[in-house]
Amino acid sequence: QVQLVESGGGLVQPGGSLRLSCAASGRVFGITNIYWYRQAPGSERELVASILSGGTTNYADSVKGRFTISGDNAKNTVYLQMNSLKPEDTAVYYCNADVVTSIPQIRSQNFWGRGTQVVVSS
After folding, report:
1. Kindly report the CA angle at 96 between 95 and 98, in degrees rounded to 5?
2. What does the pLDDT look like over 38-59, one tens digit per residue?
3. What is the pLDDT of residues 104-114, one digit of tens each?
4. Given 29, 107, 108, 116, which residue has the most CB atoms within 10 angstroms?
5. How far from 16 is each of 43, 60, 69, 70, 116, CA to CA, in Å?
6. Distance CA 99, CA 20 (A)
């Protein structure tokens, strides 16, 4: 069983920064593809950033140049560094990752975190 536990959310003023973390626990041999989503009140969940096992990253236009996605397999943790935060970044942020759960017969499974609240307000 694998669980993703998020942390790092909170209240921050516009222009500030937050670093979200999502730690994987359980039978984890590695983390490959990583995705961060967010869902604002009254809005649909949207993909804001991703990094694939090959190293390619993608960002939503609204966060390009401000957010950075990364992963640390040694710590079984994924991150979202958020800089120059804006009020419109207010949302619940969810981590999602493809996790290798079996070796050597590689099995990759997708897991979701439960979300962490980010509020950007003055």
Report:
1. 145
2. 999 899 999 999 999 888 999 9
3. 888 889 999 99
4. 116
5. 23, 19, 17, 19, 17
6. 18
